[in-house]
Specification:
The structure is a single chain. It contains 23 helices and four strands. With 449 residues, it is mostly helical. The protein folds into two domains: 3-53, no CATH class; 69-113 and 175-448, ADP-ribosylation/Crystallin J1 (ADP-ribosylglycohydrolase fold). Helix 13 (264-275) runs antiparallel to helix 14 (281-297).
Length: 449
């Protein structure tokens, strides 16, 4: 890990957690600007990461944000939800689960090639290609002048001289590998291997056995490194991990919702076991929120209700709940789509990588797209994408949710035909599989429970 490079991220993370960071920016600058060797700088940076992490939370901090399941449960809001878990017919169950898998893949594919793009550039590209508001996948088969204007290419180089294809719609004939899909597949594998009673150590073991290190990113890669150093959960999520509230856990939450129809508490508990391998606080809450929301969506299509089901499994007074409730309030106050997008971008700076990849602004975008998408698959995906921030993650999540609510049979063919019912992954044993087989295996897990 490059400790020196992530010092500014730890500074932002610790500050948002309610710590007094006075003097720490100067200490970061001193290390960066010192004449010490790179090895010495790394050692100094690692020690400073530890110091910032271990700072106490100030008494004036207004939020209560624990990272243990018992404490989280104790701080949940009072909420009444339907506990009569609906008995879904096998045909309807498959249609919903297949719709969720297809929707997740389609949304992820839509957002992949513009991941990292900023709001203004996304809007401008869509307008230049007569795709605004967005109504179709994004192609690189466009006028050379537009390609040059936006710096669009079909390949890039990451390591060495081997080119990597950028997944514009004209360059693919199946769902390419993406971590947003890898972890959903990994969750299926965890349940098939360890059963419903899996624990965080099982998740850790499964990662080490089945996901190569270089197929992980940010918080997951640091957790992976920590696990290899015999730092097991929850320490794997904590040690020198400035990404501990980033979106990585939130993108892993869907599967626990799929297999817990209506049982939002069990979905959230499974999400906790998974999230605590790599995340803390709002990073954990993000996964619990999505899992509970999806479990509720198995038996309800009331968007505000299912969002509130998700919130009911997080601490009432946490930053995530506060910001999601802002979006709900915006909708009730009659704000239009543009006003909400601008509001999110006012609260969080897309040019700051810590904000761009943090759980909270992306969870806000997910809720905004769901509330304003009116259960229309295309419009919901479009709103998630046009809000920027982590485009593939957010579109994958809302695609999963609306795909599940509406079912595979109701997803327009233009969104699923390019997938050819095939997904590639970095998970051992799932290198190339049919999406329908993943759906069937998920149904089989549910019916065997």
């Amino acid at each position: 890990m490059d400790h020196l490079r992530v010092l500014p991220i730890e500074y932002s993370q610790s500050k948002e957690e309610g710590k007094n960071m006075q003097g720490y920016q100067q200490r970061i600058d001193q290390i960066i600007q010192s004449d010490a060797s790179e090895l010495q700088k790394e050692e100094l940076a690692g020690n400073l990461l530890d110091q910032m992490y271990n700072l106490p939370i100030e008494e004036s901090f207004p939020y209560k944000e624990p990272s243990t399941l018992e404490e989280i449960k104790a701080l949940r809001p009072a909420f009444e939800y339907k506990k009569d878990y609906e008995n879904i017919s096998s045909d309807k169950l498959f249609d919903k689960i297949y719709g969720a898998w297809l929707g997740r893949c389609a949304g992820c594919l839509l957002g992949q090639p513009i991941e990292g793009w900023k709001l203004s550039q996304i809007k401008e590209l869509f307008k230049d290609t007569n795709n605004y508001p967005l109504t179709d996948y994004i192609s690189s088969d466009i006028k050379d002048s537009i390609k040059e204007k936006h710096g669009i290419a079909d390949q890039y180089y990451l390591f060495g001289n081997k080119p990597i294809t950028i997944n514009w719609i004209n360059n693919i004939n199946r769902m390419p590998e993406d971590d947003d899909i890898n972890y959903t597949i990994a969750s299926l594998n965890i349940i098939e291997t360890y059963g419903y009673d899996f624990n965080s150590d099982d998740v850790a073991e499964s990662w080490l056995l089945n996901i190569p290190l270089l197929h992980t990113y940010t918080a997951e890669r640091i957790a992976y490194r920590n696990l290899s150093l015999y730092k097991f959960p929850p320490l794997s999520a904590i040690y020198r991990n400035p990404y501990r509230e980033w979106i990585g856990a939130q993108i892993r939450g869907d599967f626990w919702g799929y297999i817990n129809s209506g049982n939002i508490e069990m979905a959230a508990e499974m999400a906790f076991r998974d999230a605590s391998v790599s995340h803390v606080k709002n990073g954990i809450y993000g996964e619990m929120f999505i899992s509970a929301l999806i479990a509720a969506a198995m038996t309800s299509d009331d968007i505000e209700y299912i969002i509130n089901c998700g919130l009911s499994q997080t601490p009432a007074n946490c930053r995530l709940a506060k910001h999601i409730n802002l979006v709900i309030t915006n909708k009730k106050s009659g704000w239009d789509e543009e006003q909400v997008i601008v509001h999110i971008h006012t609260l969080f700076d897309e040019k700051q990588i810590h904000h761009w990849c943090h759980t909270i602004p992306n969870a806000m975008i997910v809720c905004f797209a769901l509330l304003y998408g009116n259960k229309d698959f295309e419009k919901t995906l479009a709103l998630a994408i046009m809000s920027a921030f982590d485009t593939d993650c957010n579109a994958a999540t809302v695609g999963s949710i609306i795909g599940l609510i509406n079912g595979a049979s109701q997803i327009p063919q233009k969104w699923i035909a390019p997938l050819n019912d095939t997904v590639c992954s970095g998970v051992r044993g799932f290198e190339e599989v049919s999406i329908s087989s993943l759906a069937q295996r998920t149904v089989d897990v549910i019916l065997k429970k």
